[in-house]
Protein: Oxaloacetate decarboxylase subunit alpha
Amino acid sequence: MSKPKKITVTDTILRDAHQSIIATRMRLDDMLPICPKLDQVGYWSLEVWGGATFDACVRFLKEDPWERLRKLKAALPNTRLQMLLRGQNLLGYRHYSDDVVRAFVAKAAVNGIDVFRIFDAMNDVRNLRVAIEAVKAAGKHAQGTLAYTTSPVHTVKAYVEQARAMQAMGIDSIAIKDMAGLLTPYSAFELVQALKAEVDLPVFVHSHDTAGLGAMCQLKAIEAGADHIDTAISSFAWGTSHPGTESMVAALRGTPFDTGLDLALLQEIGLYFHAVRKKYHQFESEFTAVDTRVQINQVPGGMMSNLANQLKEQGALNRINEVFAEIPRVREDLGFPPLVTPTSQIVGTQAVFNVLAGERYKTITNEVKLYLQGRYGLAPGKVNEQLRKQAIGSEEVIEVRPADLLKSEMAKLREEIGALAACEEDVLTYAMFPDIGRKFLEERAAGNLKPEALLPIPEAGGVAPAGGEGVPTEFVVDVHGESYRVDITGVGVKSDGKRHFYLSIDGMPEEVVFEPLNDFVAGSGSKRKQASAPGDVSTSMPGNIVEVLVKVGDVVKAGQAVLISEAMKMESEVQAPIAGTVKAVHVAKGDRVNPGDVLVEIEG
Ligand code: MN
Structure:
Protein backbone atom coordinates (compact mmCIF):
# COMPACT_ATOMS: atom_id res chain seq x y z
CA MET A 1 0.00 0.00 0.00
CA SER A 2 1.31 3.42 -0.91
CA LYS A 3 1.56 6.30 1.53
CA PRO A 4 -1.90 7.29 2.82
CA LYS A 5 -3.15 10.79 2.08
CA LYS A 6 -6.32 12.80 2.14
CA ILE A 7 -8.52 11.90 -0.85
CA THR A 8 -10.14 14.73 -2.80
CA VAL A 9 -13.58 14.47 -4.40
CA THR A 10 -15.41 15.69 -7.51
CA ASP A 11 -19.18 15.44 -7.36
CA THR A 12 -20.71 14.75 -10.77
CA ILE A 13 -24.28 15.62 -9.78
CA LEU A 14 -24.56 18.59 -12.13
CA ARG A 15 -23.21 16.72 -15.18
CA ASP A 16 -22.47 13.03 -15.42
CA ALA A 17 -24.84 11.82 -12.69
CA HIS A 18 -27.94 13.22 -14.37
CA GLN A 19 -26.54 12.36 -17.81
CA SER A 20 -26.34 8.73 -16.66
CA ILE A 21 -29.70 8.58 -14.85
CA ILE A 22 -32.18 10.99 -16.48
CA ALA A 23 -30.76 11.47 -20.00
CA THR A 24 -29.05 14.80 -19.13
CA ARG A 25 -32.34 16.59 -18.54
CA MET A 26 -31.72 18.41 -15.26
CA ARG A 27 -32.49 22.09 -15.64
CA LEU A 28 -30.60 25.01 -14.20
CA ASP A 29 -33.66 25.92 -12.12
CA ASP A 30 -33.22 22.68 -10.22
CA MET A 31 -29.51 23.30 -9.66
CA LEU A 32 -29.34 26.90 -8.48
CA PRO A 33 -31.36 26.54 -5.25
CA ILE A 34 -28.88 24.00 -3.84
CA CYS A 35 -25.69 25.73 -5.02
CA PRO A 36 -25.06 27.56 -1.73
CA LYS A 37 -24.90 24.20 0.03
CA LEU A 38 -22.87 22.52 -2.71
CA ASP A 39 -20.42 25.39 -2.49
CA GLN A 40 -19.94 24.83 1.27
CA VAL A 41 -19.00 21.16 0.97
CA GLY A 42 -15.36 21.60 0.07
CA TYR A 43 -15.35 19.45 -3.04
CA TRP A 44 -12.13 19.62 -5.04
CA SER A 45 -14.44 20.37 -7.99
CA LEU A 46 -17.98 20.05 -9.24
CA GLU A 47 -18.42 18.65 -12.71
CA VAL A 48 -21.02 20.94 -14.27
CA TRP A 49 -20.60 21.20 -18.01
CA GLY A 50 -19.61 19.42 -21.18
CA GLY A 51 -20.37 15.85 -22.11
CA ALA A 52 -23.99 15.84 -23.26
CA THR A 53 -25.10 18.86 -21.20
CA PHE A 54 -24.47 21.37 -23.95
CA ASP A 55 -26.44 19.32 -26.48
CA ALA A 56 -29.33 18.73 -24.05
CA CYS A 57 -29.50 22.45 -23.15
CA VAL A 58 -29.83 23.51 -26.76
CA ARG A 59 -31.88 20.59 -28.03
CA PHE A 60 -34.38 19.91 -25.26
CA LEU A 61 -34.17 22.41 -22.42
CA LYS A 62 -33.84 25.57 -24.52
CA GLU A 63 -31.26 26.96 -22.12
CA ASP A 64 -28.23 28.84 -23.29
CA PRO A 65 -25.41 26.55 -22.12
CA TRP A 66 -23.03 29.49 -21.72
CA GLU A 67 -25.49 31.34 -19.55
CA ARG A 68 -25.92 28.18 -17.47
CA LEU A 69 -22.17 28.12 -16.94
CA ARG A 70 -22.00 31.78 -15.93
CA LYS A 71 -24.88 31.39 -13.48
CA LEU A 72 -23.31 28.29 -11.93
CA LYS A 73 -20.01 30.13 -11.62
CA ALA A 74 -21.71 32.98 -9.79
CA ALA A 75 -23.56 30.56 -7.53
CA LEU A 76 -20.45 28.46 -6.74
CA PRO A 77 -17.73 31.02 -6.12
CA ASN A 78 -15.63 28.79 -3.83
CA THR A 79 -15.57 25.57 -5.85
CA ARG A 80 -13.65 24.71 -9.01
CA LEU A 81 -15.94 24.02 -11.94
CA GLN A 82 -15.02 21.15 -14.20
CA MET A 83 -16.05 20.10 -17.67
CA LEU A 84 -15.62 17.08 -19.90
CA LEU A 85 -14.19 17.89 -23.31
CA ARG A 86 -13.84 15.46 -26.22
CA GLY A 87 -10.45 16.69 -27.37
CA GLN A 88 -10.57 17.75 -30.99
CA ASN A 89 -14.30 16.90 -31.11
CA LEU A 90 -15.00 19.45 -28.33
CA LEU A 91 -18.67 18.79 -27.58
CA GLY A 92 -19.76 17.89 -31.09
CA TYR A 93 -19.50 14.73 -33.09
CA ARG A 94 -16.81 15.64 -35.59
CA HIS A 95 -13.27 16.95 -35.60
CA TYR A 96 -12.98 20.70 -35.47
CA SER A 97 -10.17 22.78 -36.84
CA ASP A 98 -7.59 23.99 -34.34
CA ASP A 99 -8.85 27.59 -34.31
CA VAL A 100 -12.31 26.39 -33.19
CA VAL A 101 -10.74 24.25 -30.44
CA ARG A 102 -8.71 27.22 -29.19
CA ALA A 103 -11.68 29.60 -29.32
CA PHE A 104 -13.93 27.13 -27.51
CA VAL A 105 -11.48 26.43 -24.70
CA ALA A 106 -10.74 30.12 -24.24
CA LYS A 107 -14.44 30.97 -23.97
CA ALA A 108 -15.16 28.06 -21.63
CA ALA A 109 -12.36 29.32 -19.37
CA VAL A 110 -13.58 32.91 -19.44
CA ASN A 111 -17.14 31.86 -18.65
CA GLY A 112 -16.16 29.78 -15.64
CA ILE A 113 -14.46 26.43 -16.29
CA ASP A 114 -11.40 25.80 -14.10
CA VAL A 115 -10.68 22.15 -14.85
CA PHE A 116 -10.82 20.57 -18.30
CA ARG A 117 -10.93 16.79 -18.43
CA ILE A 118 -9.86 16.09 -21.99
CA PHE A 119 -10.24 12.75 -23.68
CA ASP A 120 -10.15 11.21 -27.11
CA ALA A 121 -12.47 8.34 -27.91
CA MET A 122 -9.66 6.47 -29.67
CA ASN A 123 -7.05 7.35 -27.02
CA ASP A 124 -5.14 8.90 -29.91
CA VAL A 125 -3.11 11.56 -28.04
CA ARG A 126 -2.60 13.58 -31.20
CA ASN A 127 -6.25 14.56 -30.83
CA LEU A 128 -5.62 15.99 -27.32
CA ARG A 129 -2.64 18.21 -28.00
CA VAL A 130 -4.31 21.43 -29.16
CA ALA A 131 -6.95 21.34 -26.42
CA ILE A 132 -4.27 20.81 -23.75
CA GLU A 133 -2.24 23.72 -25.14
CA ALA A 134 -5.32 25.93 -25.14
CA VAL A 135 -6.19 25.07 -21.53
CA LYS A 136 -2.64 25.84 -20.42
CA ALA A 137 -2.71 29.09 -22.40
CA ALA A 138 -5.84 30.06 -20.44
CA GLY A 139 -4.05 29.29 -17.17
CA LYS A 140 -6.41 26.45 -16.24
CA HIS A 141 -6.05 22.84 -15.10
CA ALA A 142 -5.61 20.38 -17.97
CA GLN A 143 -6.45 16.81 -17.11
CA GLY A 144 -5.37 14.13 -19.56
CA THR A 145 -7.63 11.13 -19.78
CA LEU A 146 -7.22 7.41 -20.31
CA ALA A 147 -10.52 6.24 -21.78
CA TYR A 148 -10.54 2.87 -20.09
CA THR A 149 -11.51 -0.23 -21.96
CA THR A 150 -10.40 -3.82 -22.19
CA SER A 151 -9.20 -5.63 -25.29
CA PRO A 152 -6.17 -7.61 -26.39
CA VAL A 153 -4.42 -4.32 -27.21
CA HIS A 154 -5.30 -2.38 -24.05
CA THR A 155 -2.52 -3.36 -21.66
CA VAL A 156 -1.25 -1.58 -18.53
CA LYS A 157 1.92 -0.86 -20.48
CA ALA A 158 -0.06 0.83 -23.27
CA TYR A 159 -1.90 3.02 -20.73
CA VAL A 160 1.35 4.02 -19.02
CA GLU A 161 2.79 5.00 -22.41
CA GLN A 162 -0.28 7.08 -23.14
CA ALA A 163 0.01 8.78 -19.75
CA ARG A 164 3.66 9.61 -20.45
CA ALA A 165 2.77 11.05 -23.85
CA MET A 166 0.11 13.26 -22.23
CA GLN A 167 2.56 14.30 -19.51
CA ALA A 168 4.94 15.46 -22.21
CA MET A 169 2.10 17.64 -23.54
CA GLY A 170 1.87 19.45 -20.21
CA ILE A 171 -1.14 17.95 -18.39
CA ASP A 172 -1.64 18.63 -14.67
CA SER A 173 -3.27 15.33 -13.73
CA ILE A 174 -4.44 12.02 -15.18
CA ALA A 175 -7.98 10.67 -15.15
CA ILE A 176 -8.83 7.03 -15.53
CA LYS A 177 -12.19 7.37 -17.20
CA ASP A 178 -14.07 4.13 -16.78
CA MET A 179 -17.18 5.28 -18.58
CA ALA A 180 -18.71 1.85 -18.93
CA GLY A 181 -17.97 0.27 -15.55
CA LEU A 182 -15.43 -2.13 -17.01
CA LEU A 183 -12.76 -1.57 -14.41
CA THR A 184 -12.44 -4.32 -11.79
CA PRO A 185 -10.96 -3.70 -8.33
CA TYR A 186 -7.71 -5.55 -8.94
CA SER A 187 -7.17 -4.21 -12.44
CA ALA A 188 -7.73 -0.73 -10.97
CA PHE A 189 -5.07 -1.46 -8.37
CA GLU A 190 -2.59 -2.68 -10.97
CA LEU A 191 -3.19 0.25 -13.33
CA VAL A 192 -2.98 2.94 -10.64
CA GLN A 193 0.13 1.36 -9.11
CA ALA A 194 1.87 1.38 -12.51
CA LEU A 195 0.80 4.98 -13.22
CA LYS A 196 1.96 6.23 -9.83
CA ALA A 197 5.26 4.41 -10.22
CA GLU A 198 6.04 5.74 -13.69
CA VAL A 199 4.28 9.09 -14.07
CA ASP A 200 4.59 11.78 -11.45
CA LEU A 201 1.07 13.23 -11.56
CA PRO A 202 -2.11 13.05 -9.45
CA VAL A 203 -4.40 10.20 -10.55
CA PHE A 204 -8.18 10.70 -10.63
CA VAL A 205 -10.55 7.73 -10.76
CA HIS A 206 -13.84 8.11 -12.62
CA SER A 207 -15.58 4.75 -12.38
CA HIS A 208 -19.19 4.14 -13.30
CA ASP A 209 -20.93 1.65 -11.09
CA THR A 210 -22.74 -0.04 -13.95
CA ALA A 211 -21.48 -3.51 -13.01
CA GLY A 212 -21.71 -2.81 -9.28
CA LEU A 213 -17.93 -2.52 -8.95
CA GLY A 214 -17.41 1.26 -8.89
CA ALA A 215 -16.85 1.73 -5.15
CA MET A 216 -14.60 -1.33 -4.88
CA CYS A 217 -12.50 -0.06 -7.78
CA GLN A 218 -12.11 3.32 -6.12
CA LEU A 219 -11.10 1.78 -2.81
CA LYS A 220 -8.45 -0.44 -4.42
CA ALA A 221 -7.27 2.49 -6.55
CA ILE A 222 -6.90 4.58 -3.38
CA GLU A 223 -4.88 1.80 -1.78
CA ALA A 224 -2.66 1.78 -4.85
CA GLY A 225 -2.01 5.51 -4.53
CA ALA A 226 -4.84 7.24 -6.40
CA ASP A 227 -5.36 10.82 -5.26
CA HIS A 228 -8.94 11.57 -6.19
CA ILE A 229 -12.36 10.02 -6.79
CA ASP A 230 -15.44 11.08 -8.75
CA THR A 231 -18.73 10.44 -6.97
CA ALA A 232 -22.42 11.32 -7.28
CA ILE A 233 -24.63 12.49 -4.45
CA SER A 234 -26.54 9.37 -3.33
CA SER A 235 -29.95 10.14 -4.85
CA PHE A 236 -28.31 10.22 -8.30
CA ALA A 237 -25.67 7.56 -7.60
CA TRP A 238 -24.95 3.91 -8.29
CA GLY A 239 -25.96 1.81 -11.25
CA THR A 240 -25.03 3.53 -14.49
CA SER A 241 -23.94 6.57 -12.43
CA HIS A 242 -21.10 6.78 -9.86
CA PRO A 243 -20.45 5.55 -6.33
CA GLY A 244 -22.47 7.63 -3.85
CA THR A 245 -20.66 10.61 -2.37
CA GLU A 246 -21.93 10.03 1.16
CA SER A 247 -21.02 6.32 0.98
CA MET A 248 -17.45 6.98 -0.12
CA VAL A 249 -17.03 9.75 2.42
CA ALA A 250 -18.30 7.40 5.13
CA ALA A 251 -16.06 4.58 3.91
CA LEU A 252 -12.93 6.70 4.20
CA ARG A 253 -13.90 8.61 7.36
CA GLY A 254 -11.49 8.21 10.24
CA THR A 255 -8.81 6.65 8.02
CA PRO A 256 -5.68 8.30 6.67
CA PHE A 257 -7.64 8.73 3.40
CA ASP A 258 -10.39 10.78 5.09
CA THR A 259 -11.95 13.25 2.62
CA GLY A 260 -12.82 15.68 5.40
CA LEU A 261 -16.27 16.29 3.87
CA ASP A 262 -19.27 16.84 6.15
CA LEU A 263 -21.66 13.89 5.94
CA ALA A 264 -24.61 15.73 7.45
CA LEU A 265 -24.36 18.50 4.86
CA LEU A 266 -24.03 15.94 2.07
CA GLN A 267 -27.15 14.19 3.28
CA GLU A 268 -29.14 17.42 3.11
CA ILE A 269 -28.00 17.81 -0.48
CA GLY A 270 -28.87 14.18 -1.18
CA LEU A 271 -32.43 14.75 0.09
CA TYR A 272 -32.82 17.80 -2.11
CA PHE A 273 -31.88 15.84 -5.23
CA HIS A 274 -34.11 12.96 -4.17
CA ALA A 275 -37.09 15.26 -4.77
CA VAL A 276 -35.58 16.65 -7.98
CA ARG A 277 -35.15 13.19 -9.50
CA LYS A 278 -38.90 12.53 -9.27
CA LYS A 279 -39.63 15.48 -11.54
CA TYR A 280 -37.71 13.79 -14.33
CA HIS A 281 -39.23 10.32 -13.99
CA GLN A 282 -40.18 10.22 -17.69
CA PHE A 283 -36.49 10.20 -18.64
CA GLU A 284 -35.45 7.34 -16.39
CA SER A 285 -34.44 4.40 -18.47
CA GLU A 286 -35.14 0.94 -17.17
CA PHE A 287 -31.40 0.38 -17.53
CA THR A 288 -30.15 2.68 -14.77
CA ALA A 289 -29.64 -0.04 -12.17
CA VAL A 290 -26.67 -2.37 -11.83
CA ASP A 291 -26.32 -4.52 -14.91
CA THR A 292 -23.34 -6.83 -15.03
CA ARG A 293 -23.73 -7.47 -18.75
CA VAL A 294 -21.49 -4.46 -19.28
CA GLN A 295 -18.54 -6.66 -18.42
CA ILE A 296 -19.22 -8.33 -21.79
CA ASN A 297 -20.94 -5.75 -23.99
CA GLN A 298 -18.96 -2.68 -22.78
CA VAL A 299 -21.89 -0.33 -23.29
CA PRO A 300 -21.46 2.85 -21.21
CA GLY A 301 -24.29 4.05 -19.00
CA GLY A 302 -25.35 7.01 -21.11
CA MET A 303 -25.35 4.88 -24.22
CA MET A 304 -27.30 2.09 -22.56
CA SER A 305 -30.28 4.34 -21.84
CA ASN A 306 -29.98 5.94 -25.29
CA LEU A 307 -30.01 2.59 -27.07
CA ALA A 308 -32.97 1.45 -25.00
CA ASN A 309 -34.89 4.64 -25.82
CA GLN A 310 -34.06 4.45 -29.51
CA LEU A 311 -35.01 0.80 -29.82
CA LYS A 312 -38.19 1.49 -27.87
CA GLU A 313 -39.08 4.20 -30.35
CA GLN A 314 -38.82 1.64 -33.11
CA GLY A 315 -40.86 -0.92 -31.24
CA ALA A 316 -37.74 -3.09 -31.20
CA LEU A 317 -36.83 -3.03 -27.52
CA ASN A 318 -37.20 -6.80 -27.53
CA ARG A 319 -34.08 -6.98 -29.70
CA ILE A 320 -31.80 -5.16 -27.29
CA ASN A 321 -29.98 -8.35 -26.32
CA GLU A 322 -29.15 -9.04 -29.97
CA VAL A 323 -27.79 -5.52 -30.23
CA PHE A 324 -25.72 -6.03 -27.09
CA ALA A 325 -24.31 -9.23 -28.60
CA GLU A 326 -23.50 -7.45 -31.86
CA ILE A 327 -21.70 -4.49 -30.27
CA PRO A 328 -18.49 -6.41 -29.33
CA ARG A 329 -18.34 -7.88 -32.84
CA VAL A 330 -18.59 -4.45 -34.50
CA ARG A 331 -16.03 -3.14 -32.03
CA GLU A 332 -13.58 -5.89 -32.94
CA ASP A 333 -14.10 -5.16 -36.65
CA LEU A 334 -13.13 -1.55 -35.92
CA GLY A 335 -9.94 -2.42 -34.04
CA PHE A 336 -11.29 -2.27 -30.45
CA PRO A 337 -12.03 1.45 -29.94
CA PRO A 338 -13.11 2.33 -26.39
CA LEU A 339 -16.87 2.91 -26.33
CA VAL A 340 -17.37 6.55 -25.46
CA THR A 341 -18.83 9.46 -27.42
CA PRO A 342 -18.58 9.48 -30.39
CA THR A 343 -17.29 5.91 -30.90
CA SER A 344 -20.08 4.53 -28.69
CA GLN A 345 -22.66 6.02 -31.09
CA ILE A 346 -20.69 4.89 -34.12
CA VAL A 347 -20.41 1.30 -32.92
CA GLY A 348 -23.85 1.20 -31.25
CA THR A 349 -25.75 2.53 -34.24
CA GLN A 350 -23.93 0.24 -36.66
CA ALA A 351 -24.82 -2.67 -34.36
CA VAL A 352 -28.48 -1.60 -34.40
CA PHE A 353 -28.41 -1.43 -38.21
CA ASN A 354 -26.74 -4.84 -38.40
CA VAL A 355 -29.43 -6.41 -36.21
CA LEU A 356 -32.52 -4.65 -37.58
CA ALA A 357 -31.55 -5.08 -41.23
CA GLY A 358 -31.13 -8.81 -40.69
CA GLU A 359 -27.76 -8.70 -42.44
CA ARG A 360 -24.46 -7.39 -41.10
CA TYR A 361 -23.15 -4.25 -42.84
CA LYS A 362 -25.98 -4.19 -45.38
CA THR A 363 -26.10 -0.51 -44.49
CA ILE A 364 -22.85 1.06 -43.36
CA THR A 365 -23.21 4.44 -41.67
CA ASN A 366 -21.21 7.35 -43.01
CA GLU A 367 -19.47 7.62 -39.64
CA VAL A 368 -18.20 4.03 -39.90
CA LYS A 369 -16.88 4.85 -43.37
CA LEU A 370 -15.06 7.92 -42.03
CA TYR A 371 -13.73 5.89 -39.12
CA LEU A 372 -12.33 3.30 -41.51
CA GLN A 373 -10.63 6.12 -43.44
CA GLY A 374 -8.77 7.12 -40.27
CA ARG A 375 -10.71 10.34 -39.90
CA TYR A 376 -11.29 9.92 -36.17
CA GLY A 377 -7.65 8.98 -35.55
CA LEU A 378 -5.68 5.82 -35.25
CA ALA A 379 -7.63 2.69 -34.26
CA PRO A 380 -6.10 1.05 -31.17
CA GLY A 381 -5.90 -2.35 -32.91
CA LYS A 382 -6.17 -3.70 -36.44
CA VAL A 383 -9.41 -3.06 -38.30
CA ASN A 384 -11.17 -5.72 -40.37
CA GLU A 385 -9.62 -5.10 -43.80
CA GLN A 386 -12.43 -6.87 -45.64
CA LEU A 387 -14.97 -4.56 -44.03
CA ARG A 388 -12.75 -1.56 -44.78
CA LYS A 389 -12.68 -2.54 -48.43
CA GLN A 390 -16.45 -3.03 -48.53
CA ALA A 391 -17.01 0.33 -46.82
CA ILE A 392 -14.59 2.65 -48.58
CA GLY A 393 -13.40 0.77 -51.65
CA SER A 394 -10.15 2.25 -52.88
CA GLU A 395 -10.57 5.60 -51.07
CA GLU A 396 -7.46 6.70 -49.25
CA VAL A 397 -6.80 6.00 -45.57
CA ILE A 398 -5.25 8.99 -43.83
CA GLU A 399 -2.33 8.67 -41.46
CA VAL A 400 -1.94 12.23 -40.22
CA ARG A 401 -3.81 13.75 -37.29
CA PRO A 402 -7.34 14.23 -38.69
CA ALA A 403 -7.45 17.96 -37.87
CA ASP A 404 -4.26 18.51 -39.88
CA LEU A 405 -6.48 18.24 -42.94
CA LEU A 406 -8.90 20.91 -41.74
CA LYS A 407 -8.70 24.58 -42.67
CA SER A 408 -9.46 27.27 -40.10
CA GLU A 409 -13.21 27.51 -39.61
CA MET A 410 -14.07 30.35 -37.22
CA ALA A 411 -14.35 33.04 -39.89
CA LYS A 412 -16.62 30.87 -42.01
CA LEU A 413 -18.77 29.91 -39.01
CA ARG A 414 -19.13 33.58 -38.01
CA GLU A 415 -20.24 34.44 -41.50
CA GLU A 416 -22.69 31.54 -41.74
CA ILE A 417 -24.52 32.33 -38.52
CA GLY A 418 -24.33 36.10 -39.07
CA ALA A 419 -26.45 38.38 -36.93
CA LEU A 420 -28.10 35.50 -35.11
CA ALA A 421 -24.91 35.29 -33.07
CA ALA A 422 -24.80 38.04 -30.48
CA CYS A 423 -21.33 37.01 -29.31
CA GLU A 424 -18.50 34.57 -29.96
CA GLU A 425 -20.15 32.06 -27.58
CA ASP A 426 -23.18 31.93 -29.92
CA VAL A 427 -20.91 31.22 -32.87
CA LEU A 428 -19.46 28.31 -30.91
CA THR A 429 -22.94 27.02 -30.07
CA TYR A 430 -23.66 26.99 -33.77
CA ALA A 431 -20.29 25.34 -34.45
CA MET A 432 -21.09 22.51 -32.05
CA PHE A 433 -24.58 21.84 -33.38
CA PRO A 434 -25.21 23.49 -36.76
CA ASP A 435 -28.88 22.51 -37.07
CA ILE A 436 -30.19 22.61 -33.52
CA GLY A 437 -27.78 25.41 -32.64
CA ARG A 438 -29.13 27.62 -35.40
CA LYS A 439 -32.69 26.72 -34.48
CA PHE A 440 -31.98 27.60 -30.87
CA LEU A 441 -30.56 31.00 -31.84
CA GLU A 442 -33.52 31.67 -34.13
CA GLU A 443 -36.04 30.77 -31.43
CA ARG A 444 -34.17 32.92 -28.95
CA ALA A 445 -34.20 35.86 -31.35
CA ALA A 446 -37.94 35.40 -31.80
CA GLY A 447 -38.48 35.17 -28.04
CA ASN A 448 -39.86 31.70 -28.51
CA LEU A 449 -37.72 29.31 -26.48
CA LYS A 450 -39.93 26.56 -25.12
CA PRO A 451 -38.43 23.68 -23.15
CA GLU A 452 -39.86 20.21 -23.63
CA ALA A 453 -42.72 19.44 -21.29
CA LEU A 454 -42.26 17.50 -18.08
CA LEU A 455 -44.98 14.99 -17.34
CA PRO A 456 -46.71 15.38 -13.98
CA ILE A 457 -45.26 13.28 -11.17
CA PRO A 458 -47.49 10.19 -10.80
CA GLU A 459 -49.29 9.85 -7.47
CA ALA A 460 -47.86 7.11 -5.30
CA GLY A 461 -49.67 3.90 -6.24
CA GLY A 462 -51.69 5.72 -8.90
CA VAL A 463 -52.47 4.55 -12.39
CA ALA A 464 -52.28 6.69 -15.51
CA PRO A 465 -55.69 7.56 -16.97
CA ALA A 466 -56.81 4.98 -19.47
CA GLY A 467 -57.82 6.09 -22.93
CA GLY A 468 -61.23 5.15 -24.29
CA GLU A 469 -63.62 5.93 -27.09
CA GLY A 470 -63.10 9.31 -28.70
CA VAL A 471 -59.63 9.90 -27.32
CA PRO A 472 -58.42 13.09 -29.00
CA THR A 473 -55.24 13.19 -31.06
CA GLU A 474 -54.74 16.87 -30.32
CA PHE A 475 -54.90 18.46 -26.92
CA VAL A 476 -53.43 21.11 -24.69
CA VAL A 477 -51.50 20.11 -21.61
CA ASP A 478 -50.89 22.52 -18.74
CA VAL A 479 -47.71 21.93 -16.79
CA HIS A 480 -46.73 24.29 -13.98
CA GLY A 481 -48.74 27.09 -15.53
CA GLU A 482 -47.36 26.65 -19.05
CA SER A 483 -49.57 25.40 -21.84
CA TYR A 484 -48.31 23.03 -24.48
CA ARG A 485 -50.19 21.90 -27.56
CA VAL A 486 -49.67 18.18 -28.03
CA ASP A 487 -50.48 16.37 -31.29
CA ILE A 488 -50.18 12.66 -31.78
CA THR A 489 -48.50 12.61 -35.17
CA GLY A 490 -47.87 8.97 -35.76
CA VAL A 491 -48.21 5.45 -34.52
CA GLY A 492 -45.05 3.42 -34.42
CA VAL A 493 -44.36 -0.20 -35.18
CA LYS A 494 -46.47 -2.55 -33.14
CA SER A 495 -44.65 -5.04 -30.96
CA ASP A 496 -45.51 -7.01 -27.84
CA GLY A 497 -49.09 -5.84 -28.38
CA LYS A 498 -48.06 -2.24 -27.54
CA ARG A 499 -48.46 0.83 -29.72
CA HIS A 500 -45.85 3.51 -29.77
CA PHE A 501 -46.94 7.09 -30.39
CA TYR A 502 -44.95 9.91 -31.85
CA LEU A 503 -45.89 13.32 -30.55
CA SER A 504 -45.31 16.86 -31.42
CA ILE A 505 -45.32 19.44 -28.68
CA ASP A 506 -45.98 22.99 -29.86
CA GLY A 507 -45.24 21.84 -33.37
CA MET A 508 -41.89 20.30 -32.46
CA PRO A 509 -41.49 16.58 -33.01
CA GLU A 510 -40.60 14.96 -29.71
CA GLU A 511 -38.82 11.75 -28.99
CA VAL A 512 -41.04 11.08 -25.99
CA VAL A 513 -42.85 7.80 -26.48
CA PHE A 514 -45.99 6.75 -24.64
CA GLU A 515 -47.30 3.29 -24.28
CA PRO A 516 -51.03 3.46 -23.54
CA LEU A 517 -52.36 1.09 -20.90
CA ASN A 518 -55.22 -0.01 -23.12
CA ASP A 519 -55.70 -0.32 -26.77
CA PHE A 520 -57.01 2.99 -28.06
CA VAL A 521 -56.24 3.92 -31.61
CA ALA A 522 -55.22 7.40 -32.62
CA GLY A 523 -55.93 7.66 -36.31
CA SER A 524 -53.94 5.81 -38.89
CA GLY A 525 -50.59 7.24 -37.83
CA SER A 526 -48.13 7.74 -40.63
CA LYS A 527 -49.60 9.61 -43.58
CA ARG A 528 -47.29 8.07 -46.16
CA LYS A 529 -48.18 4.92 -47.98
CA GLN A 530 -46.43 1.77 -46.94
CA ALA A 531 -43.72 0.12 -49.05
CA SER A 532 -44.89 -2.87 -51.08
CA ALA A 533 -43.41 -2.67 -54.60
CA PRO A 534 -39.80 -3.76 -55.25
CA GLY A 535 -38.84 -0.22 -56.23
CA ASP A 536 -40.24 1.38 -53.06
CA VAL A 537 -37.49 3.00 -51.02
CA SER A 538 -37.93 3.02 -47.25
CA THR A 539 -35.77 3.02 -44.12
CA SER A 540 -35.47 0.43 -41.39
CA MET A 541 -35.22 3.07 -38.69
CA PRO A 542 -37.27 6.14 -37.79
CA GLY A 543 -35.21 9.23 -38.44
CA ASN A 544 -34.88 12.50 -40.29
CA ILE A 545 -34.03 13.06 -43.90
CA VAL A 546 -30.77 14.98 -44.15
CA GLU A 547 -30.39 15.04 -47.89
CA VAL A 548 -32.43 14.06 -50.96
CA LEU A 549 -29.98 12.98 -53.64
CA VAL A 550 -32.34 12.28 -56.55
CA LYS A 551 -35.23 13.90 -58.38
CA VAL A 552 -38.04 12.60 -60.53
CA GLY A 553 -36.72 11.30 -63.86
CA ASP A 554 -33.24 10.42 -62.56
CA VAL A 555 -31.89 7.06 -63.64
CA VAL A 556 -30.43 5.15 -60.70
CA LYS A 557 -28.44 1.98 -60.25
CA ALA A 558 -29.33 -0.68 -57.70
CA GLY A 559 -27.49 0.15 -54.48
CA GLN A 560 -27.06 3.81 -55.40
CA ALA A 561 -27.63 6.24 -52.54
CA VAL A 562 -30.88 8.15 -53.07
CA LEU A 563 -31.34 9.70 -49.63
CA ILE A 564 -29.28 10.37 -46.54
CA SER A 565 -31.13 9.81 -43.31
CA GLU A 566 -30.16 10.49 -39.75
CA ALA A 567 -31.11 8.18 -36.90
CA MET A 568 -29.57 8.03 -33.45
CA LYS A 569 -27.27 10.95 -34.35
CA MET A 570 -25.68 8.90 -37.18
CA GLU A 571 -26.14 9.49 -40.87
CA SER A 572 -26.52 6.71 -43.37
CA GLU A 573 -27.27 6.32 -47.02
CA VAL A 574 -30.64 4.97 -48.11
CA GLN A 575 -30.06 3.02 -51.27
CA ALA A 576 -32.14 2.18 -54.33
CA PRO A 577 -33.36 -1.41 -53.97
CA ILE A 578 -33.49 -1.83 -57.77
CA ALA A 579 -32.12 -0.14 -60.87
CA GLY A 580 -34.56 2.11 -62.75
CA THR A 581 -36.04 5.59 -63.05
CA VAL A 582 -37.21 7.71 -60.14
CA LYS A 583 -40.98 7.97 -60.48
CA ALA A 584 -41.76 9.93 -57.33
CA VAL A 585 -40.01 11.55 -54.37
CA HIS A 586 -42.21 11.84 -51.29
CA VAL A 587 -39.77 13.45 -48.88
CA ALA A 588 -37.80 16.64 -48.49
CA LYS A 589 -34.82 17.57 -46.38
CA GLY A 590 -35.77 17.73 -42.71
CA ASP A 591 -38.79 15.39 -42.92
CA ARG A 592 -39.34 12.92 -40.14
CA VAL A 593 -39.82 9.39 -41.50
CA ASN A 594 -40.95 6.09 -40.07
CA PRO A 595 -39.93 2.57 -41.05
CA GLY A 596 -41.93 1.18 -43.96
CA ASP A 597 -42.95 4.59 -45.35
CA VAL A 598 -42.47 4.90 -49.11
CA LEU A 599 -39.98 7.74 -49.48
CA VAL A 600 -38.97 7.38 -53.11
CA GLU A 601 -40.52 5.23 -55.84
CA ILE A 602 -38.35 3.67 -58.50
CA GLU A 603 -39.70 2.02 -61.63
CA GLY A 604 -37.54 -0.84 -62.91
MN1 MN B 1 -18.69 9.30 -17.08
